[in-house]
Write a structure and sequence with these properties.
By secondary structure, the chain is an all-alpha fold. The chain has one domain (about 55-330). It has 16 helices and no strands. It has helices at about 1-25, 30-35, 40-75, 75-80, 90-100, 105-115, 120-135, 135-145, 150-175, 200-235, 235-240, 250-260, 265-270, 280-290, 295-305, 305-330. The longest helix is centred in the first third of the chain and has 34 residues, at about 40-75. It is globular and about 55 Å long. The termini are far apart.
Length: about 325
């Protein structure tokens, strides 16, 4: 019965994927407007939705593939050997790992889930989750290029992200310790791939990546749909009017970063379009907060983590990013 259900899910997943790419490749040639007049706002929403999905899919594939490599090749003993037993000292290697991982927020969720299943402490995994999408070299270079007239933003983004990541890890440990916060269905590593040593490990990796991609894909689609709706119907002028002031500006830009769900490799170019309309601290709040948590990423986290933990995580990240950017504005700008 389970096999039939799984087979049906696979067929449905492949069917939807084929439909998506057919519409993407040939949608312009289909006279939808003659069949059924579509409002321009819905067309805009559709364009944004497709762009978000296409932007995210390569990174999701990268994430699930790395996750599968971790599942197949990384042993729990090896992982524990590289993590200091002291919870505070463990935060700094976690940030270092995040800084060298060239992955965005779309890819990091399955990677961190797998590392936690392998025995990585919760707070260490969360530090990697929030630091990797913003501290990696690709993000630095894109920010550096987007703000060529104000290079301090690129450096400040990296510095603030480092501090925020450490603080988030410390608060997560203080509240949750090493308690298990993955969903029940993710309560243990699926070792059935390791039960047969004679199986080819490369085949196991691709099999596992395929399973995880279709498991995660539906949450990506749902998150992209919500983000495209918000982007289409959110009034930019209203945001600018609402975001005047040192205290309101960062809050508004953090909210914008959350709902836009931009990829961290591209968000600096969007932020630069707001230069002159919002303060530097507000732009930094946008650039630090968005890669750490957004609407699309939240839905992906709900797939793997307990709901209570996800809500707490969003609250902790929001409070810390907002506080640090306000303090940066007061003392350095």
């Amino acid at each position: 019965m389970n096999q039939d259900h799984s087979s049906t899910n696979y067929r449905l997943g492949y069917f939807l994927l084929v439909i998506f790419f057919v519409l993407f490749l040939f949608g312009d040639t289909i006279p939808f407007d003659r069949i059924w007049p579509v409002p321009s706002s819905l067309l805009d929403m559709n364009t944004i939705f497709i762009s978000i999905v296409l932007e995210a899919i390569p990174f999701v594939l990268l994430g699930v593939f790395i996750s599968s490599v971790i599942q197949t090749f990384l042993k729990e003993e090896t992982l524990k050997r590289f993590i200091p037993r002291n919870p505070a000292l463990a935060l700094f290697p976690a940030v270092t790992i995040g800084a060298i991982f060239p992955v965005c927020e779309c890819a990091i969720v399955p990677i961190v889930r797998r590392l936690i299943q392998k025995g990585m402490p919760l707070h260490v995994g969360i530090v990697i989750l929030v630091s990797a999408p913003v501290l990696n070299p690709i993000v630095f270079l894109s920010t550096f290029y987007a703000f060529q007239t104000d290079l301090t933003i690129a450096w400040a983004r990296m510095g603030l992200a480092f501090i925020v990541s450490i603080l988030i890890g410390a608060v997560i440990y203080a509240y949750f310790g090493n308690s298990w916060q993955l969903n029940k269905k993710n309560a243990s590593v699926h070792n059935h791939y390791h039960n047969h040593q004679e199986r080819n490990r490369l085949a196991e990796t691709f099999q596992h990546a395929s399973d995880e991609f279709f498991d995660m894909g539906k949450f990506l689609i749902l998150g992209a749909l919500f983000a495209s709706i918000v982007q289409t119907f959110l009034a930019r002028d209203f945001l600018i009017e609402l975001g005047n002031g040192m205290l309101a500006g960062p809050l508004v830009m953090m909210s914008l970063a959350y709902v836009l769900s931009l990829c961290s490799e591209a968000d600096a170019f969007v932020a630069s379009s707001f230069k002159g309309l919002f303060s530097t601290s507000s732009l930094l709040a946008f650039l630090v907060y968005g890669p750490m948590t957004d609407l699309k990423n939240t839905i992906l986290m709900f797939a793997y983590f307990k709901k209570r933990f996800v809500f707490a995580f969003i609250g902790i990240v929001s409070i810390i990013v907002y506080t640090i950017t306000i303090l940066f504005d007061v003392f350095f700008l």
